[in-house]
Structure to design on (358 residues):
């Protein structure tokens, strides 16, 4: 759900600001410390109940204030989301004045934040890539969410039994663990097959305008997290290994997406710029797949884009923006959106962040 108007009170460096956003592309620029990240953080907080910058929710209130308020209004549905923090109280999330959970907020108004880890996701850990994948499926599919929550719960139970070396208790959890694990894996496979196909279509389209030859040589493979066919069989076969290791050693919690350049991991071959390019094209392919498969359109948030992207990658990013129909919010220190670019994008809004300081 895009934000049409954002109100922030006592949040980070802002006492009181009100910003009318475009439902299309929004660009925030301003010098270091102006408050760009804080605005993007407020928008993300109003769509997830979480800060992408800090785990200390108290640090978000302005200076010595003990409370803050963020209000996001969507003009198409007329709905208002408020995220507020009062002294000594937990974060409160309300949709149209009714309390909702973080998960329900995520489902109502999903957003995808791209940060510097995302730009180098080929270099990150399998856990990071798995989390990226889980996040998008989690907000898109109810059945995925249910199986994922079940799987995590059962995995904890089985691992607790393995820690106490209780083989019969551990095996009591195996069948349910495996059946939920198979559901998660099938959803991941179905989704990734389409992401990969969208990725190749996109590369063909972009290669008419840009030089992206190295990326065309990348093969993408999904590693489901175990070697054999059925998960239950694998778990049963590995029971002794798991008891020794005191943990479930194989399963969807070990899955990964592999990017290969002629059989070598892409991170060993691609330049930093090419990795960033790969990441933004991959992010867009996922975004398109969420729309194709689930009819959902998460808002895209990209902070400090120019320090991450060189001019070639930025040109590709602009070509991708032309294809995006959802709300996009991005920031940069300099005003990189020329009037020529502005003319190209209907409904693009540009903000100089200094103007919101009160
Ligand atoms: N809780 C807070 N209270 C007051 N100022 C804050 C708080 N948190 C961050 N700031 C300040 O807000 C300013 C804007 O930060 P930020 O949004 O990260 O700027 P930008 O992204 O434009 O470089 C910085 O000067 C930062 O020190
Ligand atoms: Mg910043």
């Amino acid at each position: 759900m895009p934000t049409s108007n954002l109100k922030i009170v006592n949040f980070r460096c802002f006492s009181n600001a009100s910003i009318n956003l475009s439902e299309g592309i929004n660009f925030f620029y301003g010098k270091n410390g102006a408050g760009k990240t804080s605005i993007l953080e407020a928008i993300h907080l109003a769509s997830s109940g979480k800060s992408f910058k800090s785990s200390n929710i108290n640090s978000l209130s302005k200076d010595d204030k003990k409370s803050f308020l963020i209000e996001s209004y969507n003009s198409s549905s007329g709905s208002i989301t408020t995220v507020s923090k009062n002294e000594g109280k937990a974060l409160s999330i309300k949709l149209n004045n009714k309390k909702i959970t973080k998960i329900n907020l995520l489902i109502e108004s999903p957003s995808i934040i791209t940060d510097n880890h995302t730009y180098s996701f080929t270099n990150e850990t399998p856990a990071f890539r798995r989390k990226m994948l889980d996040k998008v499926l989690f907000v898109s599919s109810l059945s995925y969410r249910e199986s994922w929550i079940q799987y995590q719960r059962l995995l904890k139970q089985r691992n607790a039994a393995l820690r106490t070396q209780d083989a019969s208790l551990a095996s009591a959890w195996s069948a349910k663990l495996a059946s939920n694990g198979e559901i998660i894996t099938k959803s991941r496979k179905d989704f990734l097959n389409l992401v990969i196909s969208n990725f190749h279509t996109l590369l063909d389209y972009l290669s008419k305008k840009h030089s992206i030859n190295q990326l065309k040589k990348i093969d993408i493979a999904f590693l489901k997290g175990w070697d054999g066919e059925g998960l239950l069989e694998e778990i049963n076969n590995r029971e002794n290994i798991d008891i020794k290791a005191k943990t479930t050693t194989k399963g969807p919690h070990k899955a990964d997406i592999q990017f290969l350049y002629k059989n070598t991991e892409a991170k060993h071959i691609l330049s930093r710029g090419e990795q960033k390019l790969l990441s933004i094209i991959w992010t867009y392919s996922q975004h398109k797949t969420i729309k194709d498969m689930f009819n959902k359109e998460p808002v895209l948030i990209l902070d400090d884009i120019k320090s991450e992207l060189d001019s070639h990658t930025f040109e590709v990013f602009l070509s991708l923006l032309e294809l995006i129909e959802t709300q996009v919010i991005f920031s940069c220190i300099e005003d990189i959106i020329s009037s020529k670019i502005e003319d190209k994008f209907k409904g693009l809004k540009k903000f100089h962040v200094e103007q919101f300081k009160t």
